[in-house]
Design goal:
154 residues, alpha/beta, Rossmann fold, 4-stranded parallel beta sheet
Length: 154
């Protein structure tokens, strides 16, 4: 068994969220929704009701004003991590509202097995307003690679 945690920041289109969960759901995995504080009350109630249907589906009680520029996304995801840390999973996958899986659970497990504990992150240009440019941002200083492994691409 290879349990995976999925964290999704959501704000609208409940039925899409429900259908996406239905297509990717696996009982060994864990799912947590972080709801935008600006979401409608109906949407919020729907997510709460959905989480009550499954023992491995949760929602973060603390909400943040999320936006397309990424403000507060990390805070919202961290709230879900606080919930999921109590459970046994090997990887966490961070998603936004309309992100959908294009791989089956078995394919995701195979890819993550190949990763062997390493991480896959998208690199984008640095926003100087959000990053301390005086810090040393080398791989060695950040210590993000398991056993000194480096990035590889599939």
């Amino acid at each position: 068994m290879f349990p995976i945690a999925f964290i999704k920041n959501v704000y609208t289109d409940y039925y899409i969220m429900e259908q996406e969960l239905a297509t990717t759901y696996a009982p060994q995995n864990f799912y947590c929704f972080s709801i935008d504080s600006k979401a409608s009350d109906i949407f919020r109630k729907q997510i709460h009701a959905l989480s009550s249907c499954f023992p491995n589906v949760f929602y973060a009680k603390r909400e943040f004003p999320l936006d397309s520029a990424g403000h507060y996304n990390s805070y919202a995801q961290f709230e879900c991590l606080k919930i999921l840390i109590k459970y046994h999973w090997k990887y966490v996958i961070l998603l936004l509202s309309h992100d959908i899986a294009i791989k089956t659970n078995a394919e995701i497990v195979q890819i993550l097995t190949w990763f062997d504990g390493t991480n896959d992150m998208m690199i984008i240009p640095v926003n100087p307003e959000r990053v301390n440019l005086n810090y040393t941002w080398t791989f060695e200083e950040l210590r993000i690679f398991k056993n000194g492994k480096h990035i590889f691409f599939l």
